[in-house]
C-alpha cells in the first residue's frame, strides 16, 4: 500500500528529473561548438581535429599538457594591421605630441615626413627610419611611464577606417580560438614583431594572455634609482627584434619548449611556423590567416607593405599548413 501511495510522487519526481536533464542537454548542445564565429569549413575541421588528436587519451598523437604550447603572432593574426601596424600609428602620434619640444624635427627626416603627413617619404626612409622613430618615441622614460602612455593612447585612439578603439578590432574567431586551446590544456603565447612593452599592458584583458606569455621586440633598459625609487629606464638602443628568424630564437629563450601549434599571417611568421611544424612527431599544426575580406576588413597578401604574405603562402602548399580564408572561414571578423 505504501508503494501505491508513493507512486504518483515518484512519477512526478521522475518527470522533473527528466525535464532538468533535457534542459542541461539542450544547453550543452547549444554550447558544444567552441568556435561559433567559424564557418564549418575545412580550416575549422583541421584545427579541431588537431586539438582532439593531441588531447585524446589513448590517441597515438597524445601530448601531455606540459608540452601543449601554442604560439600566436599579433599584428594581422589577432588584430588589425592595416592601413599600418598599430604600434606605428602610436609612434606617429608620439612624434606629433613631442614635436613642440623638438623644433629641429621640422627639417629632419624621418620626423619631417611624419609632421608633413608625407607617408611616401616616410616609407622611403626604410627600416632605418622606422627604427629611429621607435627609438625616439619609445625611450627616455621608465617602463611604468611608458606603460601608462600606451594605456592612455589606446583608450583614446581610433582606427581611421572603423572609427573604433584598436583593442576592439581584435578578431573574434581568434579570441575564441585562444580560449578553445586553453580549455584543452594549452598554454598560449603571443610571439610578435611588435614591442613587448607595447603589448603587455593590455594583452591579458583583451586576449587572456598574461604579460609573462608575451614575446616581442624590445629596447634596452637599465636599472636606475630615481628619487630613492628603483626603476627600469628605457634606452634608445635596440635589444632584440622578434621577427622572422628572431621568432624561433625568442620562443626558445623565453619558453624553452618547441611549440606544437603556431598561428601567423605573414612572411614574418615563416620561420616560426617552420620551427614549430617541421620537427616530426607529435602531431603539429601550422596556420596562416589569409586576409581575403575587403568588405569586412581588408584583402591583401603578396603586394603590401604591412603583413606581406608571399613566401609563407607558397610554403603552406608544400608543408600542408592550414590557410584560413578570412572571407570564407569566418562568420564574423570583429566582435559586434
TrEMBL record:
Protein name: Exported acid phosphatase
Keywords of this entry: Hydrolase, Magnesium, Metal-binding, Plasmid, Signal
Organism in which the protein naturally occurs: Rhizobium johnstonii (strain DSM 114642 / LMG 32736 / 3841)
Pfam families, per the entry: HAD (PF12710)
GO terms, molecular function: hydrolase activity; metal ion binding
Signal peptide stretch: 1-30
